[in-house]
Design a protein that fits this description.
By secondary structure, this protein is α/β, with parallel strands linked by helices. The chain is built from 5 helices and 8 strands. Helix 2 runs parallel beside helix 3 (147-157).
Length: 195
Amino acid sequence: MSEFEEIIINASYKDFFGKITENLRRDQFIIPKLEEYDSLNNISLTKAIALALKEKDLSSKVFYGVEIKSNGSSRSGRIPLLRATQKNASIWKVSSRVEDLEKTTTALNDLFYFLKNHNDYSYPLPVKVIVLREDENLYAIQEAPHYRFVKDLIKKSDVILFSLQFIKKMIRGNKLINLNSYLKKYGKIFTTISK
């Protein structure tokens, strides 16, 4: 990976599906090392994930953006991370702990329903994705204390959950990542230890 990478920032969700995507504002960011991910705050971690996935994404015509406007310029209505092609999109949010998952799914649902209610059929509705920082041993296997809660919440909310450990494993690999294959599996949890 290069030391610096450009990414779209502060654009509007609709702009990703127009004909002027190359004109959207971009900023340059330093790509953190994987070893630094655990020490980053959620905003910086979101940017780090976007930058790394952008470099490893198998899709050729895909755009990544951070702090994307869903409803005007309101900070509370910002999409932390958007991955978009002309035909599909996903909105991503990092959650620190299992205890924060309900709040995170609610925030993603609010963004989703705003986009749905204001859709003039000019853009696709997004898949909702959470990256969970919490240790996988707390929720990824049946014997884990939060297994049932996490599984039920993710399934009920039609969210896709990646553990941070799983994201780091994908990024660490030498192959390009076929994210489209993961983003079709609503209600699925991807971890390094689940079966």
